[in-house]
Specification:
Rossmann fold, about 25% strand, homodimer, 9-stranded mixed sheet, 5-stranded parallel sheet, about 550 residues, GMP Synthetase, Chain A, domain 3, alpha/beta
Chain lengths: ~550, ~550
């Protein structure tokens, strides 16, 4: 250690003044301060913070007794149930790393992940016994399988040698649990959904998880003791770090096995929910459900959305339904959302449509992230903030992954030049707010002009008959490429191709208007993202356009 | 670095995923996201965040150009004016350490601090020219003296070779400023007011300042864009870290040169103040001012208090006046407040008097502190949480000083056993909340029973005629010691010794009742704390009581 000035003399770190940052500290603090406050609700289950902390300690102790050690992986295959929540604390409390699996994956991919992550234990919900059995069959080294026998699971059977509750009973809640030796130690492993090739294992560290838990609180200016509804999958970037955020604020977690609009609306009213998260598709689902008409709350609810820019019509609809929507942006590699369209009070004076345009921007970094900017992908120099010059969105800071597990090549590429490269393209507006225009591979180049597929989609979403829209490139003899739109209509709605064409021409530059319209259901990834590569293939299979 | 498992292989820290934590990052973020929002108000001055950030960068650049380097000290002698606020960013932005001086100190102490801290630059407000001139006369190595020529200063003259505004003009706002090399680097130096002996220089690090800035936000669940009134001296533990907290939330700092009740009430109404801080004495001052009767606001204001448990009558009065009071606790060594009486909603159902008793407790640690408990000072084992067993309050965590500057002996003693020893004595209640009973040296031992001077004072404060009360030990032939009360009455109020005696006997155990009452003004330290050691001397000079 350098000792080059008086402020470094005899002023070293010691046990009293330096402790590794870890979100595990949050649950201890909340259990001490609010032991009798409700921590978790799931169906008829209602646990206090004392109980939840005790259960997480039992889990840590039982795993340790079964030989799970620092650096081991514990995988969980479950929807938003108490076991998965408790694993966010109990697994790292014994030094292990939590690998929450995407429940929509197929057996082959699950098997790949379990093998690649070297899972020593797999805690799995009954509902997924078929896919898990197939996955286990493919594995050379099988993990200890622990069954979550949730009373609310509709199907499936028990596969393992012990149930989750039996495992908890093996644990001693008074046994001391451990903070990590270093805040750089891994806390979780999250595989990207990767549209091609094998998924990559993104490793989170305790420091980053601690910081982005706070980042969420500051971004939302969360109140004390919030009531958070789990509409966002907890397996998705560790529920965007909200298991840790809500716990830090002493809040209540309301579990949901799935996003059924009726269940969502009921839970909001029954449990006085104050906050929830979800991709724009979830808002779409709520808005277009028959229950929406009957939903009438005297207070406002906070919803954070990310994953795609929320279309104006959706924002307006949610506003009328009583939701204050915050638009955030991030990726698995940055612990979920870590930028937001931080709202300026004076924007409330603008027309709703104008507000929606402002809100669709990805905005500015969280307080806890160090840098977020748009750069020339070659020189890494920031682009001009003119709202026009495109570049790649880059991050730097403490809410960035350790890297990809056992993949130094991909890690090195992602961090090239000392920045995390998102692969998303966008612009910086003169007011400093950043807006995504596209993924690099989604841009459409027509007659030498770049067309943002997102911009075209946003325009289509404004049409009252359109439920979902995805735009990709189709080959064109003269222009090289032109936009090809895949459209799902709202239930009961109808529109012709000509009507949509006319609508587009009214709402955007002519060269950006789709030349092809295909009415169809849209293929989606397991995390609900539209699979553009499938649509791209479908567009490529069409004959080359001539006119 | 250990490489003992797969999660440590090829997953090192790099420029993209690890940046030193520093509150300097907050001002850059706020200047980027809210450049045109008001950052600072002082009289007719109104700076935006763009301007404030620019001014802090000018300061950093000008200091660097004048040879100020990493590890140098820059002292500031000023009330709550823009220059002192800007110094919280500009000084560390050039790598230097901010030493904000207590403006109530005498020349000899100031001279000691400037010499001990090796201040290279002294930025000083005109109003304090007399004491500063005397202090400078005593110094062998004189710092560069920079005058703050504040239009609102009522007196004094310019002493230095340059004014603060001239210094800023020397700086280049585009010149790059620096984050610390390490988050363990010093950011500020705060001398304790030490009732005896020379003051000790408490060194804060960037990591701790960053963390407690967040700690304040979470403790208060601060909203976005708060308006913060500077009733708390910024020289006091760096304004309890609020220069950094409010900046992180994009808020507005409203400066005040002094705590005049009329100015406070006016500022609250004029600038829509949402938050302010101050010792209980400040609340007392507001409540007992003639302006309180006319103060009528349709909204609630948040006030954080620390430094002494707020008396019940004061809490009730403030509640009626429209203030939601949060009671916090800390010391210079832990960056100001770092525990709070975190409120349970169900406590609102109790009677106001009962609520005041609950609120007078120091409570639980901030989210960002690791440990806060009451321990046997010898064994360091936690005491039983029975609300009775006394012990010493201990801290451990990331919001604890680096140590005392050039004082390894005192540093070692403060951190003995891997804990920070507060010197405060208290109990832990069965619900986990901690309550101070006394400083070790303030306890009164009567007939072998410990009497908490704070408990006796709290009872006295409940009497309607009492403005301030301080209780110390007086020697007694039979009992060893008995409580001796020093009382200041409210303006216009009157009460006899017998009436107070009867009041005490109704409100506490007889052995705790003061046997002596002295009606007088109370001596105070420069930070407004009652100087019990002076009262103790006065009590010792009384003859030994016999009955």
């Amino acid at each position: 250690m350098k000792k080059n000035n008086k402020y470094d003399q005899d002023l070293d770190q010691n046990e009293a003044n330096h402790v590794p940052l870890s979100p595990l500290s949050y649950i201890r603090r909340t259990a001490e301060a609010f032991p009798n406050h409700t921590a978790l609700i799931h169906g008829d289950i209602n646990y206090t913070w004392y109980e939840t902390y005790t259960r997480s300690r039992r889990l840590a102790s039982a795993l340790a007794a079964r030989g799970v050690m620092k650096g081991d992986t514990v995988a969980v295959m479950a929807p938003n149930v108490p076991a998965l929540f408790e694993a966010h604390f109990g697994v790292p409390q014994c030094g292990a790393v939590l690998n929450a699996l995407n429940i929509r994956l197929d057996a082959a991919t699950i098997a790949f992940i379990l093998a690649h992550g070297e899972a020593k234990v797999l805690i799995t919900d009954r509902e997924f016994s078929t896919v898990i059995r197939d996955a286990l069959d493919k594995l050379e080294h099988k993990p200890l399988v622990v069954d979550i026998d949730d009373a609310l699971a509709q199907s499936g059977e028990l596969l393992g040698e012990i149930t989750y509750e039996q495992l908890l009973n093996e644990g001693d809640p008074e046994s001391p649990w451990i903070l990590p030796d270093s805040e750089w130690d891994a806390i979780s492993l999250n595989y990207t959904s990767g549209t091609t090739g094998n998924p990559k294992g993104v490793v989170y560290h305790h420091r980053g998880a601690y910081m982005n838990a706070i980042g969420n609180i500051l971004a939302w200016a969360m109140p004390k003791l919030p009531v958070y509804l789990w509409t966002l999958p907890m397996f998705h970037c560790n529920g965007w770090c909200f298991p840790w955020s809500v716990t830090a604020m002493g809040g209540t977690h309301v579990c949901l096995r799935g996003v059924d609009p009726k269940a969502v609306f009921d839970a909001i009213q029954k449990h006085d929910v104050t906050h929830l998260c979800g991709a724009p598709i979830v808002m779409n689902l709520l808005l277009n459900s028959p229950e929406a008409a009957d939903f009438n709350l005297s207070r406002r609810i906070n919803m954070m959305t990310a994953g795609a820019p929320p279309p104006a019509a959706v924002l307006e609809g949610m506003d009328k339904l009583g939701f204050d929507v915050t638009h955030a942006y991030g990726l698995t590699e940055v612990y979920g959302p870590v930028t937001l369209c931080d709202w300026h009070p004076e924007w409330n004076e603008q027309a709703l449509a104008e507000q929606a345009i402002l809100k669709a921007r990805q905005g500015v970094k969280y307080q806890v992230q160090e840098e977020f900017f748009v750069a020339d992908p070659k020189t890494l120099e920031p682009v001009v903030a003119d709202g026009k010059t495109m570049g790649e969105l880059m991050f730097r800071g403490n809410v960035v992954m350790k890297g990809y597990l056992k993949n130094p090549k991909a890690t090195k590429a992602a961090f090239s030049g000392g920045l995390f490269h998102t692969g998303d393209l966008g612009v910086k507006h003169p007011d400093g707010y950043i807006e995504i225009r596209d993924r690099s591979k989604d841009i459409i180049i027509s007659g030498g002009e770049n067309i943002s597929s997102i911009e075209v989609e946003s325009a289509l979403y404004r049409h009252s008959a359109v439920m979902e829209a995805a735009v990709v490139a189709r080959s064109h003899e003269k222009w090289g490429e032109t936009p090809c739109a895949f459209i799902t209509l709202k239930p009961g709605a109808s529109v012709t191709e000509d009507e949509l064409k006319a609508f587009c021409r009214e709402n955007m530059a002519h060269f950006k208007c789709p030349t092809t319209f295909i009415f169809t259901d849209l293929p989606k990834t397991s995390t609900g993202k539209i699979q553009k590569y499938i649509l791209r293939t479908r567009a490529e299979e069409l004959e080359v356009q001539v006119e």
